Sequence to fold (344 residues):
Amino acid sequence: MFKININSIIFIFKNLKKTFFSNLFNTIITFLIILFISTAFFYTFAWLIFKANWEVVLSNLPLYAFGSFPPDEQWRPATWIISLLILSIFTLCGPEWKWLRKNLLKAWVGTIPLGIYLLYGGFGLSPIMSRHWGGLTLTILLTVCSSLLSLPFGILLALCRQSSLPLIQKLSSIYIDVMRAIPLIAVLFFGQLLIPLFLPLGIEIDRVWRAVFAFTLFVSAYIAEDIRGGLQSIPNTQVEAANSLGLNQYQVIQFILIPQALRIALPALTNQSIGLFQNTSLMAILGLVELLGVGRSILANPKFIGQYIEVYVWLACVYWIVCTIMAVLARHLEQRMTINKANF
Fold:
């Protein structure tokens, strides 16, 4: 075993020498790149440890996490976020308990009403208005609710665009093309400013749900195209075989087309989810104090004026951590779906 490891190391060094030090020009370029990366890393590390003032982050951690949620009630959003982390750990670790494996999807879906209940209150909890929501809690809520609503809507749009009925096909195609041609910020402005004008007097929709509605309208058009790409990759022979077995059109869609299309489109759907999480930062322009909005409000405090780099480095790290968790979960799900397909 030791001999094999030595040979492997020698083989790696030979490949590195052949790739990066094959001639004088490659050697100079390689050393210059190494010098640049080392210098940048050294100065970045020195700034992070010795020069940066992280009081702007440490003294405002509850604000970053929960916004202006009442301090004595912050255990409610904290409980919700911890439940999401626990579910992520259970999902990634691949629990051996069959009952837990079967109910993981229900548990993930159940986190949405749990989060709404904990944030809104009622039924034993004191009600909290949505204007007090903010920070990472609001960002995750917008992402989860918009994703949950846009996925079935996107699947429906993809099926309608594949429909043999000309009117349904044209309407869905027009909707998808129009939504993909409009900037997201315009859709968000529509959701926040124009929707209340179309509502009857005395009826008002909370601005959080107006944002969820706008995100759903926008993201579902992109999801529809991802699902349509998955549907087009399924051979027609599978549909013909299902028809020969006596399955009706609804059963073909439910048991053959949708599961395979979701598995094929899963990497693209992951990109949509990550993009949706990042795009929630646009709500800071429209008055919702999500994660980026909290950072901007802190920088408006005279005590922390000028500490832009610390705030935005911290926000970048938070966004990177959450997006990485989402990507790892999606990759794990993709592997599980591939294994299940192979076993089938």
Observations:
- The chain has two domains: 2-51, 55-343.
- The mean pLDDT is 86.
